[in-house]
Design a protein that fits this description.
This protein has 211 residues and is an alpha/beta fold. The protein is built from 8 helices and 6 strands.
């Protein structure tokens, strides 16, 4: 398997990266994806949120964090005082993995080879945006970004040292709330998710204040 590194522009901006990723053939996922799903948000965003891979809806639209998970993330961010339009959102992998089945599409998690092949795009996004706060959403994204030894259940909601950004934290993916069985279970998972994001909001306020 080749790598996305072969397709990166030499001195990238977000616009140049977004144009270049359209031609990426760094792993086989491009062949079955409908559209590439690159990150979106301000180039000077103070916070970056990273998920694992595009959903079927994101695959169709070519935009990250759409549909129920995206709306839930936006709602939770609003609760803690973070405007989604002011943060940068992206995924570790830029093409969805799955096969078309009529009007629907099967969806599978990317494997380690896909994550490794696509990593240069995320590294390039980090290099351009240079967020003060990096938030990994979900176990797959956290392991891809922070290493295979990371465990969301044990280490979520805690800021960790990392060369990727001054402040790095992992929490669950918004889809974890939607997968919880029963109204009470969803409420508990959502409340903990919001609590983690409240720590992010507090750290962002400190960054803005120069603390």
């Amino acid at each position: 398997m080749t790598s996305a590194a072969d397709y990166l522009p030499s001195t990238p901006t977000l616009d140049e990266l977004r144009a270049a990723v359209e031609g990426c053939r760094g792993c086989p996922l491009y062949a079955c994806a409908t559209r590439v799903v690159f990150g979106e948000g301000p180039a000077d965003a103070v916070a970056m949120f990273v998920g694992d891979a595009p959903t079927a809806e994101e695959d169709r639209a070519g935009r990250p964090f759409l549909g129920p998970p995206g709306r839930l993330l936006e709602r939770a961010l609003a609760e803690v005082g973070i405007d989604r339009t002011e943060v940068y959102v992206t995924n570790v992998v830029k093409h969805a993995r799955g096969e078309p089945r009529g009007r629907r599409r099967t969806q599978c998690a990317p494997d380690d080879a896909h994550v490794a092949a696509c990593r240069p795009w995320l590294d390039a996004e980090l290099a351009v945006v240079r967020p003060a706060v990096l938030v990994c959403l979900g176990a797959a994204a956290a392991r891809a970004v922070l290493g295979e030894g990371f465990r969301v259940r044990r280490q979520r909601g805690v800021f960790l040292p990392s060369p990727l950004a001054p402040h790095v934290l992992a929490t669950v993916h918004p889809s974890a709330v939607l997968r919880a069985r029963g109204e009470e279970a969803r409420r508990v998972v959502y409340t903990r998710f919001v609590d983690d994001l409240a720590r992010v909001a507090e750290r962002l306020r400190a960054v803005h204040a120069g603390v």
